[in-house]
Design brief:
alpha+beta, UPF0637_domain_sf, UPF0637 protein FKV70_06905, BirA Bifunctional Protein, domain 2, UPF0637, single chain, about 20% strand, about 210 residues, 7 strands, 6 helices
Length: about 210
């Protein structure tokens, strides 16, 4: 199967009321596309990171009542899971695609990343595209573009990662559902590759230096 991009119907899945009806369509319609993206980009990420990156497609297995408001495919250097590790994701809310690096609340690497971010903040801000966004809540579609953030806001992220047990951080690209790029499979995959190249320094910062 070749990835052909996403359609309006794929985003509209998140408007379907009820857990079971939404999950049924998500599994049939959206998940196969995420699986293809996962397998397509795993070799690229393996080469980029210098270690085997395994594919993990969201199953939403913990949900018992509320239907998911987003879905994703993740890559991490562990075959059994990704949430405890720094990782990359491509996913979607009803409004947009996201292409991100993430260290979520389950990862013990948060403090390592926070310390490295503080030490290298000027380089990070200089080298990441200004339209990339930062967020501290993987369940929220909102975020703040880096070009709108000041040093104080970055320091707040750094402090929370070190002090708040449930803190997490994501950084990357959002692509509006109406952007023509979304429906062009080859072009979208190339944008994802380019985005991950930009995010690689953040990924490396999340691990202790040997």
């Amino acid at each position: 199967m070749t990835f052909s991009g996403f359609t309006a119907k794929d985003f509209d899945v998140f408007e379907i009321p009820g857990l079971e009806p939404r999950m049924e369509v998500l599994i049939q319609q959206v998940r196969p596309k995420l699986e293809v993206i996962g397998e397509e980009l795993a070799p690229f990420l393996t080469d980029l990171c210098g270690e085997t990156m395994h594919v993990h497609v969201a199953k939403h297995a913990r949900r018992k009542v509320n239907p998911p408001i987003d879905t994703w495919v993740a890559w991490a250097a562990n075959k059994r899971g990704y949430k405890a590790l720094p990782h990359f994701e491509v996913g979607m809310f009803a409004s947009h695609i996201f292409v991100i690096f993430a260290v979520i609340y389950e990862s013990p690497n948060k403090i390592t990343f926070a310390q490295a971010l503080e030490a290298n903040l000027s380089d990070v801000r200089a080298n990441l595209p200004g339209h990339f966004y930062w967020s501290m809540d993987h369940m929220a579609p909102q975020g703040t573009e880096q070009q709108q953030m000041d040093t104080e806001e970055f320091q707040s992220i750094i402090n929370k990662l070190q002090q708040v047990k449930k803190a997490e951080v994501m950084c990357g690209l959002r692509i509006d559902r109406n952007d023509p790029l979304v429906s062009d499979g080859a072009a979208l995959l190339q944008t994802v590759r380019s985005t991950f190249e930009h995010l690689l320094p953040l990924y490396r910062m999340a691990f202790p230096k040997e």
